[in-house]
Automatic annotation (TrEMBL):
The gene is prmA. Belongs to the methyltransferase superfamily. PrmA family. HAMAP family: Methyltr_PrmA. S-adenosyl-L-methionine binds at residues 150, 171, 193, 232. It comes from Methylotenera mobilis (strain JLW8 / ATCC BAA-1282 / DSM 17540). It catalyses: L-lysyl-[protein] + 3 S-adenosyl-L-methionine = N(6),N(6),N(6)-trimethyl-L-lysyl-[protein] + 3 S-adenosyl-L-homocysteine + 3 H(+). The keyword Cytoplasm applies. This is Ribosomal protein L11 methyltransferase. It is an enzyme of class 2 (transferase). Keywords: Cytoplasm, Methyltransferase, Ribonucleoprotein, Ribosomal protein, S-adenosyl-L-methionine, Transferase. Methylates ribosomal protein L11. One of its GO terms (cellular component) is ribosome. Its EC number is 2.1.1.-. GO terms for biological process: methylation.
Amino acid sequence: MAWVSLKIEAQDNNADLISDTLMELGALSAIIEDANAETIDEQPIFGEPGDPPPGIWQQNLVSALFDEGVDIPAVIEALTQQAKLGNLNYTTETIQEQDWVRATQSQFDPIRITDTLWIVPTWHESPNPDAINIVLDPGLAFGTGSHPTTHLCLAWLTQTVTPGNSVLDYGCGSGILAIAAKKLGAAEVVGTDIDTQAIQSSLYNAEQNQVEAEFYDANAYQSKEFDIVVANILSSALSVLAPALAKSCKAGGKIALSGILREQEAAVSAIYAEWFDMSAPQHMDAWVLLTGTKKCAT
């Protein structure tokens, strides 16, 4: 058995309509994705504490799955008529049946961050049992260690966290950075996120790794100062949140900022230089890690 994947280019004013109409036309599933994901034009839609509810991207891909044998041109014609749309740009791909569990698991091997820190899915044995091993499966929340931004933050934490530190993970996603900080010896670790799924994922992953960390909805979190602040979120959010993140870092404390593309490096660094002595940036592929030390009040 096989399926047909149909991807249609859409705008913010018709993506929902296209998705809903495709479901009415027999699609097994339909999702809306950012057409500019992982590029400089990637657009955050989840806002920050106090912002309006989530919206939708300006440029989208509507991805729908149909049974094999579906007449795609007929689906497109019916879609344009029912939704009253003009010419649609689309592509199709045949998806063969397979053991989806094994296929998914085969994509995720243990990830080496350093010789002493590994990310290990539950279906694998650790390559180094004597290392710090974070047990983590791919899930709905961002952060498995495979993305350069997460990798950069984890490597930095191994060099920065010392026993007794307090650590804030802002935009905790899967909780991976908070869990790593705790395993590296931090005494107090707090994670916050605006996504309730991320909070649930972080709590679950912390329990799986037998570490104690606190996770809060960012809207309800009462800020205080930490020795270390790490934020792996989009650069646009980092720019807006700079005063709040600076306030959360003690004088002499350390900050790490990721989710920044090389083209955005100078602008974000300039913003944080108001509060931090910025260190040399670290790079991995197209991504940048910015770090700094909080200036003492004068």
